[in-house]
Amino acid sequence: MHLAQHVYQDWRVCVVMPARNEAAHILQATTSLPEWIDRIIVVDDGSTDETASLVKNAEIISTGGIGVGGAIAAGYQHLVKSEGEQRWCAVVMAGDGQMNPSDLPILLAQIINCEADFVKGDRGAHEDGLSAMPIRRRLGTWWLKHLTNMATGLSIHDPQCGYTVCNDRMLQTWDFSNNWNGYGYPNWWLLQCMEYDIKIKEAPVKAVYEGQSSGIKIFTFLPIVSGMLLKGLFSRGSRWYLLGQSKATFTQRATISIGFLGGSALLFSIPLIGPVGLCGIFGLGVARKVDATLLRQLETTQVDPRA
Asked: By CB distance 3.0 to 4.6 Å, which of 50, 193, 250, 278 could disulfide with 198?
């Protein structure tokens, strides 16, 4: 089912809305969207409540409980297969109503102006900041922000924000056979974006916490996602700096390699050497600073960092 063709500045705007047991929020989430939204794809990921029956003015596809990352990927694939030749983009908005529809124009602007392929919301850049975010989430977001940026070489301020927009060409060339189905999908997508050379931007969005409950189990989520990012860190670090598959000078390669490897070794040795291992934070910090400086220099000259 295609909704009415409104077309926002010559683009079709489609919303992918993952939902699992969101009977308390899904009606508001689907009916509060602007009239110029062309399609709403609700991905019912194994709900056991009345979520599906409460959906209005939207298409519903089911994914059987594979996880929010897998549900979003299924929504993307549905759009790739069913959209036409006109330019279109896909907005991800959660079925629990945590994405404010009034932020849509600022998220869409950089896609429509062809300044980015993928735009992520940045809750910290909004005028309300992160005041509504629970302290535990803020701490987890801080940790994963730094780990994600080290793993990807990017400078993303809010990698955990799931409010995103991507353009049609990005999705049409994406390899959906390889996917992260769980809650760590925002970090995994950023890792993949570096491999695909996707142009990423951020835009301020409001942090909304109005009684919604999260399915994230923090003590299992953080180690799993941290492990995924550390794997990405060593993969990029090895290819770019140890093997020289980047535009870095020998001095930059040596500094970053010693900082990353030495710093990591010290941190992992804390159980054996005690507090001295915390010096590894300094090594990682130096490596990250040199890495970020190199990437900024290459970005200003529009040079691909990979050799």
From this structure: 193
The amino acid sitting at 161 is C
Residue in the block written with tokens 């109503």? 97
All domains of the chain in start order, with CATH: 12-214 (3.90.550.10), 223-300 (no CATH)
Render pLDDT for 32-70 as a digit per residue (tens, 0 to 9).
999 999 999 999 999 999 999 999 889 999 999 999 999
What is the residue whose two structure tokens read 């040199």? Answer: 290
Strand order of the β-sheet with 88-92 is: 59-62, 39-44, 12-19, 88-92, 164-167, 118-122, 200-204
**Can you spell out the DSSP letters for 194-262?**
HHHT--EEEEE-----SS------HHHHHHHHHHHHHHHHHHHHIIIIIS--SS--HHHHHHHHHHHHH
Residue 179: alpha-carbon gap to chain centroid: 13
Taking the C-alpha atoms of residue 148 and residue 281, their distance in angstroms, rounded to an integer, is 16
Q: Which residues of 272-292 are buried (b: 16+ CB within 10 A; e: fewer)?
A: eeeeebeebeebbebbbebbe
SS3 label, residue 90 = strand
Looking at residue 62, what is its pLDDT?
A: 96
Tell me the C-alpha to C-alpha distance, in Å, between residue 220 and each of 142, 155, 266: 17, 26, 24
